[in-house]
Amino acid sequence: MRVGVASDHRGTHLREKVIEVLHARGHEVEDAGVDGSESVDYPDFAAIVARKVSSGQLDRGVLICGTGIGMAIAANKFDGVRAAPCNDEVTAEISRRHNDLNVLCLSADLLSPRVVERMVELWLDTEFEGGRHLRRIEKIRALEAEERACDKP
Q: Where does the record place the catalytic residues (predicted)?
């Protein structure tokens, strides 16, 4: 699987852990940074990964900022991206099973490297259930298409 990983300045330590977990499991990793502690704007780094997930260049993405919320908001601006902040193993697993989440957003401020390792493993290993959940994903896709079709002033 091809997985893009990016963080802002607050998430560099967890980004390194995520990359380690992905490599250990044999995944191809695209590291979109950031390195160092100089303040950067998370939308810039979310866009790098989300754009490639949207276009099919990457299968999935992992984004890390202080809370995971900002990264999720930015990533969800791209067609076909389903990004959400997950803060424990349960939400990481359910995000895949029910929502077919393709961009996992993590909190550098709230999560330990050990918990992140387990969350990423569950997120990678959990399959989308389909069924009634597929119907809901299709409705989200229809909303995306409707928004693209709207004439804007």
A: 65 (proton acceptor), 98 (proton donor)
